[in-house]
Amino acid sequence: ILSIQESDYVLIMEGTNDQWYGISATTTAFNLGEMVDKCRASGTKPLLGNLTPADRDTSSQIPNLYNPAIADVAQQKNAILVDHYSAVVDRWEELDYDPVHPNLQGYEAIARTWFNTLVSLIKPPFNVGAILLLLSD
Predict the structure, then answer these.
(1) Using one digit for the tens of pLDDT, what is the confidence trace for 43-72?
(2) Can you say how many angstroms the Cα of residue 13 is from the centroid of all Cα atoms in its chain?
(3) Span 13-27, mean pLDDT?
(4) CA 18 to CA 77: how far, in whole Å?
(5) Is residue 25 over pLDDT 80?
(6) What is the pLDDT at residue 122?
(7) N or C, which end of the chain has less CB nearby within 10 Å?
(8) Mean pLDDT score of the chain, rounded to an integer?
(9) Distance (Å, rounded) from C-alpha 90 to C-alpha 35?
(10) Residue 60 gets which letter from DSSP?
(11) Other CB atoms closer than 10 Å to residue 77's CB: what's the count?
């Protein structure tokens, strides 16, 4: 899709299902690195989002293995890291729908972290009102 849809930024967030299905944090990090490389090759700037908590992650692999691996990829590949985990971890019980998925408020919190990062990157002129209107739908 990168070859047919010109974009300035690509938002990448992956790994929760990898953790659940036993795919290692190392493999997840490698795959994310490949995605970052493909974005760069297309002239697009990648943003990597780390993972939100998951109630089914009883061994705390997300905060202790996967998110550090994602942060390493962001640092090594000079990609921007978007910290979803910190944005929701203190309120996860009120933001989750089931053992892994956020509810509407959880998705809104994730969207805000993407939005706040993008706003910090995009230089004027841009129409903040139009962006806020889109987000409010």
Answers:
(1) 999 999 999 999 888 899 999 999 999 999
(2) 4
(3) 93
(4) 21
(5) yes
(6) 82
(7) C
(8) 90
(9) 30
(10) -
(11) 17
Single-letter amino acid, residue 78: N
Task: With a cut of 70, say whether residue 83 has pLDDT above it.
Answer: yes
The model carries a pTM of 0.86
Distances (CA, A) of 119 to 8, 9, 16, 22, 137: 13, 12, 26, 35, 18
User: Cβ neighbours of residue 40 under 8 Å, at least 6 residues apart?
Assistant: 46, 77
pLDDT at 80 over 60: yes
Asked whether 66 and 19 are in contact (CB, 8 A), the reply is: yes
Strand order in the sheet with 9-12: 9-12, 45-49, 80-82
Say which amino acid occupies 111: A
Residue-level length of the chain: 137
Q: What's the half-sphere exposure (Cβ side, CA atoms, 13 Å) at 106?
A: 21
Q: Which residue matches tokens 């299902």?
A: 17
Q: Using alpha carbons only, what angle is made at residue 129 by residues 12 and 5, rounded to the nearest 5 degrees?
A: 35
- Region 73-84: what's the mean pLDDT? 97
The residue type of 99 is: P
- 85 and 51 Cβ atoms separated by less than 8 Å: yes
